[in-house]
Each structure stands twice: as C-alpha cells, then as structure tokens.
Amino acid sequence: MSLYKSISTYSAVSILNAGVPFLLLPVLTSYLSVEDYGLLAIVQIFIIFVTPFVSINICSYIRAEYYHITKDQLSTLVSSILCIPLVFVIVVWSCLFNYGTLIDAVIPISLIGTLTVPLIVLSQIIPQVVLTLYQISGNAIKFGKYQLCLTFLNIVLTLILVITWELSWQGRLLAILLSNTIFTLVGLVLIFKMKLINLDIQFKYILKSLKFGGSLIVHVLSGALFIMSDRLFISYYLGTEEVGMYAVGVQVAMIVFIIQHAFNQAWAPYLFNKLKSESIENNISIVKISYLAFGFFLTLPFVVDMLSSPIFFYVIDQKFNNAIQYFSLIHF
C-alpha cells in the first residue's frame, strides 16, 4: 500500500477512534453534570496510570522484535507474553485493594470502581495487540476494519447506557469495558487465524518481555503522571466540577494531537521500511515529507483556534461554556 493510501486509512481510523470522546461531547455534556464529567475524566486518567502495570508494555516488545524473528518465533513470542497481563492484573488488584483508602483520598470513587479499572485495562490489551500486529505488518485495511468496528460498538453502548439506562459516568466506563471485552474475544480468534497462538510457551520470551517492558514503565509512568497531574491538582484545589470544565477544554484542544497521532501511525512503518534501503531517493523522499508535515502541523493550531467558538457554541452544552478559557491556554 502506498504512503498516501496508508496515511489516508490510518488517519481516518485514528481520527475517528481518538476522537470518540470528542464525538461523544454533545451527549456526555448534555446528560452528565459538570461534576460527573470531571469524575469521569479523573477515572480515565487513572486507567492510563494503571495500564503499564498490567500490560507491561507487551505491544512495544512485539514491535521491537517483529522485524528480527521468523513467523514461527513470532507465534511463540505472542503466545508466551499474552500470559503476562493475566498475572499482573492480579498483582495490581492486590495493591489497589490494600491501598484503597489512600487511593480514595486522591480519586473519589468507590472501592468497586477502583477495582474495575484493572479489568478495563486488561480488556484493552488483546485489541491493542491485534492492532499492533496489523500496523507493523502494513495491513492498514484490516487495522481499519477492526478499529472502526470496536469504535462503533463503543459509541453505541455509550449512547445506550448513558441515555437510555441513565447510568451517568459509570455507563461510559461500562461501555468501554463491554466493547473491549467483546473485541478481546474477536481478537483472540483473529490472532489464532494469523497462526500466532500455539502451546509452545517459552519462559525466555516472558523474561525478555518483562525486562523490555519493565524498563519502559518509568518512562510510560512519567508520561501518565504528567498527564494526570493537572487534573489531580485541579481536583484537590478547585474540586471535581472544575476538572469537568478543564477536561472539556482539553478535549477540544486535543484535535491537533489526534490528527498528529494519526499521521505518526502511518508514518512510522513507512519510515522504518524506507530507512532499510539507505538509498538517496528514499532519503530525499523522507526529507520532503518531513518538511510538508512540519508546515502542516505548524498551521493546524491556528485553524483549530478559528473553529473553537463554533464548536463550543453548537456542539457542547452551555453549562460547559467556561471550558473555552482552558482551550485557549492549552491548544497552542
């Protein structure tokens, strides 16, 4: 597949997937109070915090090893490391249960809500493994189909649970859990069809994955804490309601990041593939595309800034109007 088609496919899929919170803004801001939206934002950031401790970054390990091993070795590797999250989710559960009181002081949700977070993280791992395998193998069409179906189910369940069943912010989290659980089962079938699951579990791959993924935990955790810190400070000093305002402003400002992330998903496999040949033509092509991307992403924030007022007026419920002050501070 050409770079243009690859970028178009990944961009369309990634923009839709990453833009789910933005697409749901009209619904969530209408059916959730400002405080409930703030609580949802805090819990979602807590999910990001817990993720590296459950997944141990196994997708990053698959990416790192994919180009250096055979198909049979990849099958054994995938089969071996899929056991890791099942063990670590129990470890994380134990920690959350033992330190539930301390966590409740920072994140105001019940113990049951806290213990649900590792389940949500676990449900997302197989779908991410499937998407990783499709991406690094350059299969953008299958990547798109799988991701779009998961995104569609996520949105539909959210609408049902929040609007019809009136489950508030808990309905949004339950929709994430249910949609990812269903696509975990679908993902296991797809991995089996790719012939990447067998009974040859090798401890050496588990150790290598733990070593590789464990070394990244500090890096991933630092990023998660960086993302979490603003909401936690706002929650502590100004309250959960102000977190809701802030989260809406951030969500609109994330439009630039969503588009950038979509480009990176298509660009990374293309770049590494081109760098293999070390030809002058490929190097020139890489430089040209890099300059074009730089120019595009330099002007994009100004375009989004011009569109911000209509977005806040027509898309977001009026009770969140004050969120535009946070958008103005963040998006540049």
What labels would you give this structure?
0% strand, 332 residues, 16 helices, mainly alpha, globular
In words, what does this structure look like?
There is one protein chain. The chain is 86% helix and 0% strand. The chain has 332 residues and is mainly alpha-helical. Helix 4 (34-55) packs across helix 13. The chain starts with a helix and ends with a helix.
List the helices and strands and how they pair.
Elements: H1 3-18, H2 20-23, H3 25-31, H4 34-55, H5 58-66, H6 71-81, H7 83-98, H8 100-106, H9 111-136, H10 140-164, H11 168-193, H12 203-238, H13 240-253, H14 255-277, H15 280-314, H16 324-330
* Number of strand elements: 0
The residue fraction in helices comes out at over 70%
Number of helices: 16
Which geometry do the CA atoms define? globular
Short structural description:
The protein has 332 residues and is mainly alpha-helical.
